[in-house]
Amino acid sequence: MNKNIIKRVIEEANYIIKTNSTVREMASIFNVSKSTVHKDLHERLLDIDNKLYLEVEKILKYHTDVRHIRGGQSTKRKYLM
């Protein structure tokens, strides 16, 4: 794997642990697509650092579990305005 990719994956992992950001937020911060962030954190990180992967996986699972709630809140705000 390219050293630049490894560096980006580790930076993304540390950032999501530090800020609890969503994949969309991280994609805009790191100037990559959501698919790239997803692949970095689900596939590449597992090969690089298993301990870091387990921490990130917990955060991503939480975001997946609450996304339907966030979507409902967003729609509610949209129609209240």
Structure, described:
This protein has helices at residues 3-19, 23-30, 34-48, 50-80. The chain is mainly alpha-helical and 81 residues long. The chain has one domain (3-80). The longest helix has 31 residues, at 50-80. The radius of gyration is 14 Å and the shape is elongated.
What attributes characterize this protein structure?
81 residues; mainly alpha
Short synopsis of the structure:
The chain has 81 residues and is mainly α. The protein has four helices and no strands.
Secondary structure topology:
Blueprint: H1 3-19, H2 23-30, H3 34-48, H4 50-80
Largest sheet: none
How many runs of DSSP E, i.e. beta strands? 0
Number of domains: 1
Report mean pLDDT, rounded to a whole number. 91
**Rg (CA only):** 14 Å
| Proportion of residues in extended strands | under 5%
In DSSP terms, counting alpha (H) and pi (I) runs of 4 or more, how many helices? 4
Shape, per Cα inertia axes: elongated
- Report helical residue fraction: over 70%
Order of helices and strands: HHHH
The assigned structural class equals: mainly alpha
Any low-confidence stretches, pLDDT <50, length ≥5?
none
Distance between the termini: 48 Å
